[in-house]
Amino acid sequence: MSARDANAIAAQKNMDLVKIAPRAKPPVCKIMDYGKFRFEQQKKEKEARKKQHVIEIKEVQLSLNIDTHDFETKVKNAIRFLTAANKVKVAIRFRGREMARPERGIELMEKFAESCSEVSSVEKPAKLEGRQMLMFLAPISKK
Length: 143
What we know:
The protein folds into two domains: 3-51, Roll (Ubiquitin-like (UB roll)); 57-139, 2-Layer Sandwich (Translation Initiation Factor IF3), CATH 3.30.110.10. It is 41% helix and 29% strand. It has four helices and six strands, in the order αββαβαβαββ. The protein is rod-shaped.
């Protein structure tokens, strides 16, 4: 059918002629109420956005000479973040002479990962970057 005839039919029905597949030979068109179609599409997109959860990265900072209670508090915070389905970035900042003993930082990170192992898995293991050691924990998916 020619485009002129299709436009005439759409005008008679008070609807729009919408190209569905413009690159096809010949182009595929559909007669519909375009305003209603756009409204339905926006409604579906809005509903999909409501249902999705944005994963944030929360940060927990430690120091090399952290006390046991402070460590437990940091672990508790990390577990709270992980149960809320957020990722956790664990950071240790080395100051002064602490740079001479990076293995102590690795031990502390392993201990931290072990404490959170029930609700998380190590996404990126501990790695020294400049004066900071970073490790990323991801929540265990519930399937």
